[in-house]
Amino acid sequence: MKIAIGSDHAGYRYKEEILAYLRTQGFEVTNYGTDSPESVSYVPFIRQVAEAVAAGEVDRGIVLGGSGNGEAITANRTAGIRCGLAWNEESARLTRQHNDANVLSLGERMMDLETALKLVAIFLETPFEGGRHLERIRQIDA
């Protein structure tokens, strides 16, 4: 599976940890930045992740910031993206099972690193249930 990842300065530390984790798990990862904890706007980094997912260059995306809210909003402005903001295991699982999310948004200020890594694993391992959820996804994407 190919993964795109991006963050602003507020998500930089966790992005680097998640990037290392993904590589040890055998994922092919493209890092869209930022590449330091210097203050930057998240928009260009998140947009690149979303566009890579939407274009089919990668299978899934992960975006990070302080809260993850702005990052999720930015990603969801790209056609074909269903970005879910997760804060616990259940929210990460449901964003895949029910919403077929193709991008995960996390807030570094909202959780510890162990939780963030667990949410990434859940996001990548959980399949979409389809069934009754499929029609809703079609409506969202229309």
Description:
- By secondary structure, this protein is an alpha/beta fold.
- It has a single domain (2-141), classed as Ribose 5-phosphate Isomerase B, Chain: A, CATH 3.40.1400.
- It has six helices and five strands.
- It has helices at residues 12-24, 43-54, 69-76, 89-97, 113-125, 132-141, and strands spanning 2-7, 28-31, 60-65, 83-85, 103-107.
- The protein has a five-stranded parallel β-sheet with strand order 2-1-3-5-4, with helices on both faces.
- α1 (12-24) links the parallel β1 and β2.
- α2 (43-54) crosses α3 (69-76).
- The longest helix is centred in the N-terminal third of the chain and has 13 residues, at 12-24.
- The protein is globular.
- 39% of the residues are buried.
- The model has no long low-confidence stretch (mean pLDDT 96).
- It is an enzyme of class 5 (isomerase).
- Its EC number is 5.3.1.6.
- One of its GO terms (molecular function) is ribose-5-phosphate isomerase activity.
- D-ribulose 5-phosphate binds at residues 8-9, 66-70, 99, 109, 132, 136.
- Keywords: Isomerase.
